[in-house]
Amino acid sequence: MGFDLESLSEATSGAIGSLVSTTVLYPLDTCKTKYQAENQSQHQRKYRNISDVLWEAISTGRVGSLYQGLGTKNFQSFISSFIYFYGYSFLKRIYLKRSGNKKIGTKANLIVAAAAGACTVVLTQPLDTASSRMQTSEFGKSKGLWKTLAEGTWSEAFDGLGISLLLTSNPSIQYTAFDQLKQRLLQTKLTHESGTESSPEALSAFSAFVLGALSKCVATILTYPAIRCKIVIQAAESDQENNEDKQQHGDKKSISGALNTIWKREGLLGFFKGLNAQILKTVLSSALLLMIKEKVAKTSWIILLALRKFLFPTNTRLKAA
């Protein structure tokens, strides 16, 4: 099949979009994650709402700690997005080539997206675990990537792997919805010239932002209880926990343990604690990512085509996307 430049272009633009959106929204992400990670009954809670986390950072003079773990998070986001977008684009092109169809259907798109998501999760889970522990550490006490991972066993680096695999349904729903809406939106706008090289189809920044926000909002609401459980599983131990809390912290390392702990301490509504903040962060992040990806994709495609012609001048021309 040869080297797939279009898949590489998709992966590169997606990874750049993820890097920018993660950095811009990181303080919000830290506040959200610390708020979600707290698993106490109502009268014992340290944070009554997400703004309490921000106020703690300000009042203690540790505003910079809102960025603790940013390097690891950016590294994880870049690698994850690159693997996901490359795998998604590559598998989709294989399906279209073998099926002979011009467009991929919704069911096939879901399967392709889930497969790409599962591969991404397995390969990047240790980075995800370390990032969550660094974010949920006490302000000013976060450790580096290697030290965070070295504190536990190799198996502990994969804490939450099962639920992370379950959550591959989230981007599957999101990107499938986005891709289908994008195809319909561009259907009447774009024309293809046979035998010429063309850049991948691109949405306007505003259209990409709106479609990304809508698709991510639906996916987040449907999968939020699992998201909350995952954060509880991966959260770092607090220095203020007593022996009983530390024992229960170990019990929360499984999906059933996290579900049981949230139910006992917070009840049914506990599974939706922080939902508003999650929607705000994920919708903004996803929309920003896809907006940047759409704008970067065209540039990266042109650069890759130029490199291809320079490195392999005798190769045949690429077919139109």
Automatic annotation (TrEMBL):
GO BP annotations, alphabetical order: ADP transport; ATP transport; fatty acid beta-oxidation; peroxisome organization
GO molecular function: ADP transmembrane transporter activity; antiporter activity; ATP transmembrane transporter activity
Record keywords: Antiport, Membrane, Peroxisome, Repeat, Transmembrane, Transmembrane helix, Transport
Superkingdom field: Eukaryota
GO cellular component, one term: peroxisomal membrane
Membrane topology: Multi-pass membrane protein
Solcar repeat coordinates: 5-94, 104-184, 203-299
PROSITE patterns, alphabetized: SOLCAR (PS50920)
Cell location: Peroxisome membrane
Family statement: Belongs to the mitochondrial carrier (TC 2.A.29) family.
Protein name per its UniProtKB record: Peroxisomal adenine nucleotide carrier 1
